[in-house]
Write the structure tokens for this entry.
Amino acid sequence: MNSVRLHDLSFEQFITEEEVDQAVQRLADEMRVKYEGKRPLFIGVLNGAFYFATELLKRLPIECEITFVKVASYHGTSSTGHVLDLIGLNERIEGRHVVVLEDIVDTGNTVRHILDALAHLRPASISIAALLFKPDAYKHDMPIEHVAIRIPNVFVVGSGLDHDGLGRNLTGIYRITGPTS
Ligand code: 5GP
């Protein structure tokens, strides 16, 4: 399937499932070297990161823990900048090597908020891993250490990302082409 309609918008595929798989495998290989023996705690940011977390973790055969948090609701095709508190984090963070898993980093406001909240809990280290990163939209200084795929500043769905609830189960990545006719 190369094009799809979700609600009022049309999308076309521009990254295939195979390309996503290869990019996640490269990332997993890189992270295995860094985190082997450190028993990292992966924190997936719901809802979007469920897909990336699964694809990454099944390729990362190291001792690790995985949990999920919810921070924000996001509607429409641009980032609102409004985020809520971390919901659902019950693990002890102090002294742990923490890796935040994001579906996409756009402006970076969401990961900035999460890193600030986690830093107070005194982890041994914190890093960010993102399936997708939009460098042209990014507004912050902190490094996004682990990025699977860099994309232009366009609205995308698939591989966990939605448009008003639809599209998360599409494999590969689809970019907006316009309103449906
Ligand atoms: P940021 O705070 O980095 O600007 O945006 C982070 C959140 O905005 C992501 O977790 C995601 O929910 C949403 N977002 C940003 N860009 C896109 C996009 O291209 N497609 C979709 N579906 N969501 C996006």
Notes: The helical segments are 17-35, 49-57, 109-119. The longest helix spans residues 17-35. The pocket of guanosine-5'-monophosphate is lined by residues 48, 74, 79, 102-110, 155-157, 161-163 (CB under 6 Å).
